């Protein structure tokens, strides 16, 4: 895969650290703003990226690039992805796919009409530990409850309280606890249980954005609760409760470093089968395979999952009226 990276922020710099372990991915270009030119030059040099651009559309005109990885602020995902698809590029877009369900549907239709691969970068769906959790579900007995808590006091929260609004706390830019942290919990649950029958969201609102919230997903025979907070801390963990056993994950739902199998509150086994220590490695291995083989069947499966997640986001915002 001949890849252009769109963005130069924290997630991009984290991804670049593993590119040495992904020789099948050729780093053709990196794109940023004019004020990030110095950072682009530095990243180009350190990681052997062939070129850099401060003009996104100029980058898209390069014939050597067949795919782009979009890692810009949430509210730009839709427009950047649409431009790339119209330019004939395959697209890997960071979570959340878009800030609006209808935007997602438009991108899905466009990718299908252009016969281009479109995928959401969401680490937990590709981790081997997550696949193992799915395999272990049948050993738990009838599933009763799932609870996910991803609460992390934001380094930008104090500034937010003083009136400095960063994108992660700007509702107009896809910020807030639901879109930033709870999105991982939603993906975790949907990958196990599918689309729920009902969605309810109870946010704590500050300056018109949810700084924390409790999301309840209703299924026919069980319930799932997804908790996320950027205004407070708590132990980060997820629990899948079955009638006879339970699974406990003592790490964020985007990392899944390991998980335990419990029976009557006694640990029976700890499982960790991830093949690489970095959470983003396996997803990019899979992305490369799907793009290289133009595997539209795999793409449709992934898009169906992402569509359910975007539908939940839309339902949650409607339920909470924000």
Give a description of the structure:
Helix 5 packs antiparallel against helix 10 (296-320) and helix 8 (177-193) packs across helix 10. This protein has helices at residues 10-16, 37-47, 56-60, 77-86, 101-114, 128-136, 157-161, 177-193, 281-292, 296-320; strands at residues 2-6, 26-31, 51-53, 67-70, 90-94, 118-121, 143-151, 198-206, 209-218, 223-229, 237-242, 246-249, 259-263, 266-271. The model has no long low-confidence stretch (mean pLDDT 97). It folds into 2 domains: 2-117, Rossmann fold, CATH 3.40.50; 125-279, Dihydrodipicolinate Reductase, domain 2. The chain is α/β, with parallel strands linked by helices and 322 residues long. The protein starts with a strand and ends with a helix. It is built from 10 helices and 14 strands.
């Amino acid at each position: 895969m001949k890849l252009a990276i769109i963005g130069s922020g924290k997630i991009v710099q984290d991804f670049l650290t593993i590119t040495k372990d992904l020789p099948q991915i050729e780093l053709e270009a990196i794109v940023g703003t004019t004020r990030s030119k110095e950072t682009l030059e530095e990243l180009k040099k350190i990681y052997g990226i062939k070129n850099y651009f401060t003009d996104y559309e100029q980058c898209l005109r390069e014939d050597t690039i067949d795919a782009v990885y979009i890692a810009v602020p949430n509210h730009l995902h839709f427009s950047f992805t649409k431009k790339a698809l119209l330019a004939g590029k395959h697209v890997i877009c960071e979570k959340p796919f878009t800030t609006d369900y209808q935007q997602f549907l438009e991108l899905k239709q466009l990718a299908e009409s252009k016969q281009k691969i479109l995928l959401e970068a969401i680490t937990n769906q590709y981790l081997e530990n997550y696949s193992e959790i799915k395999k272990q579900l049948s050993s738990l007995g009838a599933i009763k409850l799932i609870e996910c808590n991803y609460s992390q006091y934001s380094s930008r929260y104090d500034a937010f309280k003083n009136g400095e609004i960063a994108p992660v706390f700007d509702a107009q830019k896809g910020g807030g606890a639901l879109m930033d942290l709870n999105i991982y919990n939603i993906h975790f649950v949907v990958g196990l249980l599918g689309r729920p029958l009902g969605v309810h969201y109870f946010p704590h609102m500050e300056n018109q954005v949810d700084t924390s919230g409790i999301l309840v997903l209703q299924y026919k025979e069980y319930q799932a609760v997804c908790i996320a907070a950027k205004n407070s801390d708590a132990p980060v963990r997820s629990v899948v409760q079955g009638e006879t056993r339970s699974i406990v994950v003592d790490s964020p739902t985007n990392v899944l470093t390991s998980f335990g199998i419990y029976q009557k509150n006694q640990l029976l086994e700890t499982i960790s089968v991830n093949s690489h220590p970095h959470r983003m490695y396996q997803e990019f291995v899979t992305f490369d395979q799907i793009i290289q083989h133009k595997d539209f069947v795999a793409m449709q499966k992934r898009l169906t999952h992402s569509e359910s997640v975007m539908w939940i986001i839309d339902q949650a915002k409607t339920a909470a009226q924000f």
